[in-house]
Structure formats: C-alpha cells, structure tokens
Amino acid sequence: MKFLKMHGAGNDYVLVEGREGDREWSALATAMCDRHFGIGADGLLIVAPSEAADFRMIMFNPDGSESEMCGNGMRCVAKYVIDKGLSPKKGLDLRIETLAGVHQISARLKDGKVDTVRVGMGTPRFKPSEIPVAVNGTDRVIDYPIQVDGVDINVTCLSIGNPHAVAFVDQTVAQWPLLELGPKVEHHGLFPNRVNFEIVNVLDRGHLAARIWERGAGYTLASGSGACAIAVAARLHGVIDETVNIALPGGDLQVQWDGSGEVWLEGPAASVFKGVWEG
Known about the structure:
Blueprint: E1 2-8, E2 11-17, H1 25-33, E3 44-48, E4 55-60, H2 71-83, E5 93-98, E6 101-110, E7 113-120, E8 141-148, E9 151-159, E10 163-168, H3 178-186, E11 196-204, E12 207-214, E13 218-220, H4 224-236, E14 243-248, E15 251-256, E16 264-268, E17 270-276
Parallel strand pairs: 2-3, 4-5, 10-11, 12-14
Antiparallel strand pairs: 1-2, 1-17, 3-4, 5-6, 6-7, 7-16, 8-9, 9-10, 11-12, 12-13, 14-15, 15-16
C-alpha cells in the first residue's frame, strides 16, 4: 500500500487512498501509527470518494478509534488532492466530508504547491448532551471544577464535531504537567466518550499559547479542532477578539470566530515523505 507522510504544524499523519470497507482500517491505523514498529503518526487519514462532497476523509487515531473530524488532517487531505490534481474542480476550493459533516476548504499556493489551508470547522455546540458531558441543569459548561490526582482544574467544554475540555492555567503551559494529567482528564468520568484536553495561557487579546492532549492519540504538537475549541473558549471568557493566533509546540494556527457562527481555522500543510507499507 502506497502512503504519504504529512503534517499540519507538527500534527503528523499517514495518508492513503481508499474507501470504507477496503481494509480493517482500525487495526491498520494502530500498526502504521506506531512510532517504533510502524511509520509513526498521530493518525491515519484515508482519502475516499464521497456522494456529499468532493472527497471524504476517514480518520483513525493510533489507538484504533475513529475520529469524527480533524482540522489539521483536512488541511493535509486538501494539500494532497490539490497537489496531485485529483480535485474535480481543478481549483483551490474543496468540500470535504467527515463524520462531523461537510466542510469548506480554501487553499493557498506557494511555488505552485499548497502551503496553507483555511477550513470551515462548523458551528460549536455547548449543550452538555451534545458534547457529551455528564452535567445537568445548564446549557453551557464553563469553568466546571474537576479534580485529578489532587489538582483542581476548571474546564470549559464544547464540541467542534468532537468533544473538548479547555482549561486556562496560570502556570506556563510548558511547565504544567499535561503528560501526567492529560490521560486522566481524557478518561474522567465526566466525559462518556472521553475528551480532548487543552491547557492555555492568555498572552494578549490576539495571542494564546497552548498544549494539547488528544483523545486516542495522546500528546500532540498541534490539533486543529483543539485550536478551535481553545479560541471559542477564550472568546466565551472575553479574553480575545474575533481572530487569534495560537502558539502550539508544532507551530502557529490562526482561528477566527465571530461569537455565533462557523469557526474558521487556518494553518500550514506539509508533505514529508512517501513510501510503501509492506504490512
């Protein structure tokens, strides 16, 4: 099987062409994403045909679970199909289907290749039942207190097609014990389907710094949906304006949200190497 290794701000993927049912994708994702015995990646992307859009993106995490959507992954898919001339429109605008719906994509070129991609990530959802979060009696979960290993954490929860819990912390994100506490937040009883967990420092109204623990993948250098969740939570707290730059260990992502409609994500997409999987 031919594959392409790609990344979006350090959030790395193995990309293949296929269709649902071609293979046991869950097991293949676990094997290919292994960083010691496989190729190594934060996820497996399958570019598949779609009846609802130009292409369908199927995405599996390293633990074999399927993800509803992936912003950095969509940017990589857009780069792949445009650079290879696979898009039926032969332009820089695409529609990509995911489990979370159909998303509008707009790419920008540099030296004839896709360099950055802007993605419509959908409208955030806040009702606990839609995230889901096991909280009753409220329409929004903002600064909800939980305790993990004796550490008090206030989480703001929302869905960007997948569940997120965002915590604004006083300690620098580089020093906060994300590797120790991230997996415990992911599996906390408050989250029936587990959760993506983001910790954030507010630098000013146009800049945030963050680190991310991704459900099913663990610590990642970046996350597109995570960046969007961070921006939405920050806007709910009134600490940023409509557009914000989010500094992540793998690079910067830009998010725009007007406070009510669709969230827009923009960032890089890069190809690293190609090969053949023998497994």
